[in-house]
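**User:** My hope is that you can spare some time for a protein that puzzles me. As I understand it, each token names a local backbone shape. I would be glad if you read both lines and explained how they fit together. The protein I mean follows directly.
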Amino acid sequence: MTNLTDTEKKDCLFQYRHDATLGGYVMVKNTKLITFAEAKELWNKYTPSFANQHSQDGHPEMAIWVNCKDDTDYREDKYHVNKHTKVSGGQLYEVIEKRIHP
């Protein structure tokens, strides 16, 4: 049995989708198991499209899932952005809600 390094392990999934013109959604990319490096490449490739869809209220969603045992193991996401993500200058920002009370 070969011991793979973390960069060689195919235990990640990448997904990117956005709203369709006539309702529903378009699944732009939905991979089988890939390495984390491959998932990051796809993330960087699709970030401009995500930002464009976001600016048009297209309700995009993009995620890198990690530690996956198979192609349907969507339990743990490393990065996950959606319509609630802030987009500024082509960069994605997580908005954190914090209740403030005296």
In short: The helical segments are 36-55. The mean pLDDT is 91. The radius of gyration is 16 Å.
